Amino acid sequence: DTGVSQDPRHKITKRGQNVTFRCDPISEHNRLYWYRQTLGQGPEFLTYFQNEAQLEKSRLLSDRFSAERPKGSFSTLEIQRTEQGDSAMYLCASSQSGSSREQYFGPGTRLTVT
Amino acid sequence: GENVEQHPSTLSVQEGDSAVIKCTYSDSASNYFPWYKQELGKRPQLIIDIRSNVGEKKDQRIAVTLNKTAKHFSLHITETQPEDSAVYFCAASKGYDMRFGAGTRLTVKP
Lengths: 114, 110
Prior knowledge:
The structure holds two protein chains of two kinds. Chain A is mainly beta. Chain A has no helices and eleven strands. By secondary structure, chain B is mainly β. Chain B is globular. The mean pLDDT of chain B is 95. The interface between A and B is medium-sized, with 22 and 22 residues.
């Protein structure tokens, strides 16, 4: 499968626990994005990497959220001390710098905080 | 920052009719406007996009128009089919920063 993959697809956790999600972008893509999508809404930008550098973080990304892309390939998004309001679909997308600006989305990780 | 508004939130059409979804954006520096289709439980997929130096783009039954002066853009789907039923999102982007509309749930009735 040459598309963007995310793991796990579903995660149920109790409030206060930490969770980590993984995203594997399309192999030749150097740009990676994280979004959060709640029911009935469009994806909301969280953060962006170009290669291994995190170039932008949305104000949505509180200090409980951290993202890494250590070798410029896969990325992880960690949420510490989860809250019920963190329940959402977390989408990863990737793109290649150049003339095409299309972002290819992964299937998402659905997080439920109980 | 950029604010994207999308209308209508729901749209129901008869098979074979046309569907039009409209979006407005606030940041005149936005220069890339993609449209994504998201079927239930699936990932968003790009269906068409337009850049700010183009006024209209067409791909088979799908077309997008852009009015930079008014800061609005529209998606037109002609000869709709039941498989067009999905949620459609518009977005506006400058650089890597992409902001999405809230989505339009399109239902095509056979």
